[in-house]
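Is this the right way to post structure tokens for a design question? Let me know if I should format differently. Anyway, here goes:
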């Protein structure tokens, strides 16, 4: 157990040595840290001194730069001030010069006013002298000519009117010729385009009113015992049946084309059937009337669809279908109405108007011909009344129906298009045939109208009434009078006569000097 104290002593010595070593190390570390801190502090002081020196240098440089900028600005301001002073000096010099110029102008104006005043006084004196001279000369002229002042003025005005009338006629002729050429060229272009785009056949349709018989014995069967068959047929159909010596033919006559067509088809059915007696006649005629009415409605609907005019009432469709059995100068009226409708549509589209409305006006323009036998008045009035009665509300259509023959003047453009298309369809080659009597009467009316005008010596209607040649008396008319005469005759023809197409009026005035060399 002796080793225990030694151990304790050893431990105590170890601990003492350890604490001593630790203390020594702490002191060494402390001195080291202190040395490092002093070194860092010294370095920081050096850096602070360096930063302070750098800041001082930068401040001096900035101060020098600002001083230079300020000096430069001061120099620029001084230069600008000197430039302004120079400009002000120039302006002052210019104002001084302008003031001098104004002074000179004022002096010149004063001199001019003085001269004008002197000239006005001289002119006033001269005017008084001239008035006295004019008065004296006027008295002398009145004494020499024997005319008063009013008579001389009247004579002078009459001569002036004659001279101005001649010049006015020349100007009117030039302007009329120029505008006429322009209008004719544009109208011709539009019409030719429309006619080329719509090319219809030139065959005129006619309603057949004869029925062929297989043999002459059929005539007796049609007449019947004591004429009862033919009387029954005429009563139920409303037509006249003419049976004469012409072999193999029976003629059906009636002013109503629909009745005539019903009678023709019913008679053909009776002939084909062979049973001809009053009861059978009435039955066949009723069946035929129903078929014709159906054909009329089909024809009307086909026309409306072909013309593409929109919805119309069934009554108007029926009237259109009846036009299929109506002819005018051998031209089928329904076909003519379709041609007018298509031409109106083309013309309207060329002019930028409503094509469908124009076709509607054209298709319905002759609808009065379907009922003009049943109502009083011409077909324009009848057609307008029927269209209004059966639901047509467009004023353009009603005016076109009523005024397309120029019986009543209308300002609607569609009426003018219908009139133009109607003339094109009616006057094209092969469309219509005119009776000789009416043709001769129209030629005579043209010539008689021209002979009414003073200064006309002779008048000739040529080219089937398309041109009127007027021979003027050369000793009673001038060239300007001839121009005015042609215009007056054309206006009179438009107002008084009815004619298809256009009529060219040519006035000829000439002087022939004849001498013989012997």
């Amino acid at each position: 157990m002796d080793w225990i104290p030694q151990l304790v002593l050893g431990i105590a010595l170890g601990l003492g040595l350890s604490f001593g070593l630790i203390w020594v190390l702490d002191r060494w570390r402390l001195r080291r840290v202190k040395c490092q801190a002093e070194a860092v502090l010294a370095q920081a002081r050096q850096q602070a001194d360096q930063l302070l020196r750098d800041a001082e240098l930068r401040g001096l440089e900035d101060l020098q730069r600002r001083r230079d900028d300020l000096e430069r600005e001061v120099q620029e301001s001084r230069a600008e001030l000197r430039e302004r002073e120079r400009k002000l000096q120039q302006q002052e010099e210019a104002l001084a010069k302008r003031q001098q110029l104004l002074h000179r102008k004022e002096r010149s104006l004063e001199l001019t006013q003085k001269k004008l005043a002197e000239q006005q006084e001289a002119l006033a004196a001269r005017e008084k002298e001239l008035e006295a001279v004019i008065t004296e000369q006027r008295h002398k002229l009145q004494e020499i000519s024997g005319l008063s002042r009013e008579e001389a003025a009247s004579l002078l005005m009459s001569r002036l009117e004659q001279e101005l009338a001649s010049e006015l006629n020349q100007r009117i002729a030039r302007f009329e010729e120029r505008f006429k050429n322009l209008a004719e060229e544009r109208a011709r272009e539009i019409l030719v385009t429309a006619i080329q785009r719509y090319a219809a056949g030139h065959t005129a349709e006619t309603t057949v009113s004869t029925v062929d018989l297989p043999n002459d014995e059929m005539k007796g069967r049609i007449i019947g015992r004591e004429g009862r068959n033919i009387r029954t047929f005429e009563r139920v159909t409303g037509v006249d049946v003419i049976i004469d010596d012409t072999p193999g033919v029976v003629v059906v006559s009636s002013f109503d084309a629909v009745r005539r067509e019903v009678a023709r088809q019913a008679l053909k059915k009776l002939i084909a059937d062979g049973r001809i007696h009053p009861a059978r006649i009435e039955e066949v005629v009723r069946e035929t009337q129903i078929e014709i009415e159906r054909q009329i409605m089909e024809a009307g609907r086909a026309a409306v669809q072909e013309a593409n005019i929109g919805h119309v009432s069934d009554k108007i469709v029926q009237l259109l279908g009846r036009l299929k059995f109506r002819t005018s100068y051998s031209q089928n009226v329904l076909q003519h109405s379709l041609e007018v409708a298509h031409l109106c549509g083309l013309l309207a589209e060329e002019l930028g108007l409503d094509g469908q409305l124009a076709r509607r006006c054209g298709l319905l323009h002759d609808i009065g011909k379907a009922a003009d036998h049943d109502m009083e008045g011409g077909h324009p009035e009848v057609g307008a009344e029927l269209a209004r009665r059966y639901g047509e509300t467009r004023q353009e259509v009603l005016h076109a129906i009523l005024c397309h023959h120029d019986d009543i003047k209308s300002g609607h453009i569609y009426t003018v298009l219908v009139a133009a298309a109607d003339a094109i369809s009616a006057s094209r080659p092969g469309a219509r045939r005119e009776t000789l009597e009416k043709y001769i009467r129209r030629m005579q009316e043209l010539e008689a109208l021209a002979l009414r005008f003073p200064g006309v010596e002779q008048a000739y209607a040529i080219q089937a009434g398309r041109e009127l040649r007027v021979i003027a008396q050369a000793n009673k008319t001038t060239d300007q009078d001839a121009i005015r005469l042609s215009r007056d005759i054309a206006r009179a023809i438009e107002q008084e006569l009815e004619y298809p197409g256009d009529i060219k009026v040519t006035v000829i005035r000439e002087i022939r000097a004849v001498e013989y060399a012997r």
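Format looks fine. Someone answered above. Worth noting: The first strand starts at residue 210 and ends at 212. The beta strands are 210-212, 240-242, 249-253, 327-328, 331-332, 456-462, 467-472, 504-508.
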